[in-house]
Amino acid sequence: MKKIILTTMVLFAFGFANAQSGSFKLGAHVGLPTGDMKDASSVNLGVDVAYTWSVAEGLDAGITTGYTTYLGKKGWGDVSFIPVAATAQFTLTDNWFIGADLGYGIGVNDGNDGGFLYQPKFGYQMEKAGVYVSYKGVSVNGLNVSSVNLGVNFKL
Predict the structure, then answer these.
(1) 20-73 residue pLDDT tens
(2) 11, 24 in Cβ contact below 8 A?
(3) Domains of the chain: which residue ranges?
(4) CB distance 86 to 62 below 8 Å
(5) 133 CB-near residues (< 8 Å, 6+ apart)
(6) CA dist., res. 96 & res. 90, Å (int)
(7) Hey, how many other C-beta atoms are within 10 angstroms of the C-beta on 57?
(8) What is the Cα–Cα distance from 125 to 93, expressed in whole angstroms?
């Protein structure tokens, strides 16, 4: 886990050193749990931080992290992750985009080993803000910890 955190810090430092060609995004999301989580959790809440570079016209790619938690219903505990992922966003038209995050969700709770994280997105990006819908999933020990989310981001 220390290696993952150190690698993330190095990537963010590199991104800030090359800030002239990229953008820093800060956001939040809320979602309805699905799959194996729908009976154990009432809501998914989280914050997102990303740094992306323009790699081709209409295509941005970069790294993302943050914090996401599935609040447990009565008798169930919360399930939380720190995502460490690659992110990409492709502009379809003037402002509409599709994108995806792929990486690893580091488990924060006892007994939560974390797992493969995936999050396809569809949204509308304006100059300084954007909104999106997504399906977030983390494969943990054969379980699918997932939700359908509504998110917002702000370019800084």
Answers:
(1) 578 999 999 999 999 889 999 999 999 999 999 999 989 999 999 999 999 999
(2) no
(3) 2-155
(4) yes
(5) 121, 122, 123, 148, 149, 150, 151
(6) 9
(7) 6
(8) 10
The class level of CATH for 2-155 reads mainly beta
The pTM assigned to this predicted structure is: 0.84
Q: Where are the beta strands (DSSP E) in 36-142?
A: 41-56, 59-72, 79-91, 96-107, 115-125, 129-140
Residue type, 142: G
Both tokens of 147, joined, read 């939700």
User: Residue 1 above 60 pLDDT?
Assistant: no
CA atoms within 13 A on the CB side of 92: 9
Name residue 95's amino acid: N
**2, 14, 22, 110 from 62: Cα distances, Å:** 21, 11, 9, 30
CA distance 7 to 13: 10
